[in-house]
Design goal:
With about 500 residues, the chain is mainly β. The protein folds into three domains: about 35-180 and about 195-225 and about 235-255, no CATH class; about 265-410, Mu homology domain, subdomain B (Immunoglobulin-like), CATH 2.60.40.1170; about 415-509, no CATH class. Helix content is about 10%, strand content about 35%. Strands 1, 2, 4, 5, 6, 8, 9, 10, 11, 12 and 13 form an eleven-stranded antiparallel beta sheet that branches. A five-stranded antiparallel beta sheet has the order 14-15-16-21-18. Strands 19-20-17-22-23 form a five-stranded antiparallel beta sheet, with no helix packed on it. The two termini are about 15 Å apart.
């Protein structure tokens, strides 16, 4: 993990700067590394998240709305028919990184599109239209005020994010209420450091559109950015001018940049939607390990209702945790926490009810992320874990489980630690490390990118500080294939691996 939280913030700002400015050799028709005119139909992405509306809190809950600018990077116009279901809907959510975990702390209802502008935010070169479609290369801005307009917001539960289908008019589409009604809601306790708040905050936006989904382009419709939180008592505000928007990505994917021992895996419900599963395992220094998992249902309509991972025989499990996100404003989805059980050879979390018992049970539905964690006395080994599917088979999607290979407590209780051989790190026992002629770093730790490297590696400008100037030096040499100062890994290229060296060694040498 980074040396300080502040260090992490500065380093991550560098990561977003990189994402917003680096154009690789096979990209560059648009700005910020965005591919334009993708073959295969309309393709809507979130080109930018900017502008915030902060609303008056109610009963310990704050509400926000964020402006979004969409871009059509496909080769066909995107439908934007106002009084029909042939137009995009826009979801927004808020996340927080704290104590080594990324958690979703708020979500809102969906803004319904109503007119497509013909701007060119993504630099693709816009072919203008009459507003009933988003033109090829064009962008459309909805201000935060429009995205927070209650009279044009519908519920998420009616939308099939995999197909883009939803009924129109949506339930309660024209209804209005108090300051937090329908809007992205966050508990003040998750914002106030004096309560359970604090950490690094993020905002994510996602578009869902039927013709985009029909073209198979529904997997890149989310983007995210950093958020700053300020306030006191019952008045809290959010600003998002910290760094550029990271396009075509979900917040959960930043976890390995915050904790270099975190891993992210993409899995799919059979012939259906994307589920992003992330895990992080850290040694506690006392012979036990902290296991953390986050599961984001990105666009699966069938949803996820259980999570099961294997355990080594005799494994002792404690401090089992679960975290979900609240539904609100009349949503029928039951927010009951999942139950958990520890039996011989497995630990399992599951939704309180099955689909046949309650279609509104608290499954991990699209656009939401749930967290699972525990402590165990067995070290991690990659093994197959299982996600259970909530809704019955649909079309050619019939499987009721999804396998995923994750780091799980299926190793043993013998002390292991990082073993450095020629600057390469593997987790071994001390004896195995000695036999390999390596340098053993201590019991119950994991390999990080920096653990086998010099303490000041990443100090490109040799000022005894690994910081912003070194990050910018890597960016300046990006793609270099000659003898470059910023080639920190010595592989003859300046790539993300060199960026990670800078991030891992951030701070004073």
């Amino acid at each position: 993990m980074f040396k300080t939280t502040a260090s992490a913030i500065f380093a991550l700002v560098g990561v977003t700067l990189l994402a917003g400015t680096i154009v690789s050799a096979d990209r560059g028709l648009g700005n910020s590394g965005t591919d334009c005119f993708q073959i295969g139909g309309p393709d809507v992405i979130v080109g930018d998240i900017r502008g915030v509306s902060n609303y008056q809190s109610v009963d310990g809950i704050e509400a926000f709305a964020f402006g979004t600018e969409s871009c059509n990077v496909g080769d066909t116009t995107l439908l934007w028919n106002e009084q029909t279901n042939q137009k995009p809907v826009i979801g927004q959510s808020m996340y927080r990184y704290k104590d080594g975990r990324i958690e979703m702390i708020g979500q809102g209802w969906l803004k319904h599109g109503f007119f497509a502008l013909s701007d060119d935010w993504c630099g693709c070169g816009c072919t203008g239209t009459d507003g009933t479609v988003l033109g090829v290369g064009c962008s459309d801005l909805y201000s935060s005020g429009l995205n927070g307009q209650q009279s044009n917001m519908g519920p998420k539960y009616e939308v099939n994010a995999f197909t883009g289908e939803y009924p129109f008019p949506a339930t309660d589409l024209n209804s209005t209420g108090n300051g937090i009604y329908k809007r992205l809601q966050v508990k003040i306790s998750d914002l106030d450091p004096a309560q359970d708040g604090g950490g690094i905050y993020f905002v994510e936006a996602q578009y869902v559109s039927p013709d985009d989904a029909a073209a198979g382009n529904g997997y890149n419709n989310a983007s995210w950015t950093f958020a700053e939180v300020n306030g006191s008592d019952d008045a809290w505000t959010v600003s998002i001018n910290v760094a550029n928007t990271v396009r075509e990505s979900q917040v959960i994917r930043v976890w390995p940049f915050l904790d270099l021992d975190a891993r992210v895996h993409d899995v799919f419900v059979e012939n259906e939607g994307l589920v992003v599963v992330a895990c992080k395992v850290r040694a506690n220094g006392d012979g036990t390990w902290q296991y953390d998992y986050a599961i984001q249902n990105y666009n699966s309509d069938r949803s996820i209702s259980s999570f099961e991972i294997p355990l080594a025989p005799g494994a002792v499990v404690s401090e089992v945790g679960f975290h979900d996100v609240d539904y609100h404003s009349g949503s029928p989805i039951d927010g009951a926490d999942w139950s958990h059980s520890v039996a011989a050879g497995k630990i399992r979390w599951e939704c309180q009810e099955e689909y046949d018992d309650n279609v509104w049970a608290n499954a991990i539905r699209w656009g939401t992320t749930y967290n699972f964690n525990f402590v165990c006395d067995v070290n991690p080994v990659v093994a197959e874990s299982t996600l259970g599917v909530f809704k019955p088979p649909a079309g050619d999607s019939v499987a009721m489980t999804v396998p995923v290979g994750l780091r799980t407590p299926t190793g043993n209780s013998d002390p292991t630690g990082p073993c450095c051989v020629d600057q390469s790190c593997e987790v071994r026992t001390e004896q195995d490390c000695d036999d390999a002629g390596g340098d053993y770093s201590g019991d119950w730790e994991l390999c990080d990118i920096y653990i086998c490297r010099d303490a000041c590696e990443g100090d490109v400008d040799s000022d005894d500080v690994v910081g912003v100037e070194d990050l910018l030096a890597v960016i300046a040499d990006w793609g270099c294939s000659k003898a470059c100062v910023a080639d920190l890994t010595g592989d003859g290229l300046v790539t993300v691996e060199d960026l990670l060296v800078v991030i891992a060694n951030w701070g004073n040498c």
